[in-house]
Amino acid sequence: MSGDATIVLMWEARAVEGRGGELLEWARARSAELSREPARRELLRAPQDRVLVMTWWEGASYADDLPELPEPDAALITRPVHRWRFEAVG
Fold this sequence. Notes:
Elements: E1 5-14, H1 20-32, E2 40-46, E3 50-60, E4 82-87
Antiparallel strand pairs: 1-3, 1-4, 2-3
């Protein structure tokens, strides 16, 4: 995968039942504290108290070290965070 691409990082976590709003706010705050600003950022939620954060990084390559959200406190989530990295194709 080449440089000068757009890399999309996806971060997804499932909150302990009933704590989805808290996880969403935690993710919103952490995504605002990234060491640099992504070209685009989206926060989404889904049933079962799941939260998804997507960030777009222009001019990056697949292997670049890009800022990512950390793991939330284990008491807030039901399983480890899932992370994916994609290269946008036009």
